Amino acid sequence: MDIQIKQNVIRSSDGRIKYKRFSPNGRDHYHLGVWIDGEERDLDQISFVEYRLHSTFTNPLRRSANRRNNFSITFWTWGMFQIEVTLHLHNGQTQRLSHNLAYQLPADEGNNYVDVSQKEEC
């Protein structure tokens, strides 16, 4: 089974990078998506995927059973860290993978970022 872990920085509908602050003096957090990718026959063997995020997250263990979106999850973060991934197969076996979450943000040109701190739907 050849599975890769993919990621991206989630953008708004107009293409700007979303960020928010969870407290007035807090850091900018960015909305990220993580999912698995591979051959259809390999993905079809997976029942669900567990992602273990950094221990500072309120709920560090995230689970996805949504095959249609390649078992993706989204979350807000300000940092980069190691994600431990466990694939739970339909046959009862598991496969463990590790992914170094790292992303590069473009320079702020004044119009390519959008603050969604005050919006309820992010």
TrEMBL record:
Residue ranges occupied by any YEATS domain in the UniProt entry: 1-122
Protein name (record): YEATS domain-containing protein
Source organism per UniProt: Gallaecimonas xiamenensis 3-C-1
